[in-house]
Amino acid sequence: TDADVTSFDGGYGSAYLAKMVGQKKAREIFFLGRDYSAQEAYEMGMVNAVIPHEELEDTAFQWAQEVLGKSPTSIKMLKFAMNLTDDGMVGQQVFAGEATRLAYGTEEAKEGRNAFLEKRKPNFGEDKWLP
């Protein structure tokens, strides 16, 4: 719709979409302003899954519970690292070295390593996700 009303995303959104779906598809989306189905969005890589509306909340809760079972520090650092890709490879490499050094010294890392060696599910503690 943007091009229909003399509006455009000249910033992050258009570049991010091109990164997600490729330049040609992003140009189609922005230039033509068409509506796409959930299945089409999935096939383009814009969404991770197509979930019926009545299952959406339960699915989101299930995914959140899966993430909550992971190392909080790892999840935080992965999110940070994925966002840093726009800073180029130098920023990514510096971040990776520092983040790895930081993470390996945590109690979570010790618990993760011990759980792996003991062939059990790690217990990172329920309160780790609370501010």
UniProtKB/TrEMBL annotation:
Family annotation (SUPFAM superfamilies): ClpP/crotonase (SSF52096)
Family matches, as Pfam families: ECH_1
GO molecular function: 1,4-dihydroxy-2-naphthoyl-CoA synthase activity
Protein name, entry field: 1,4-dihydroxy-2-naphthoyl-CoA synthase
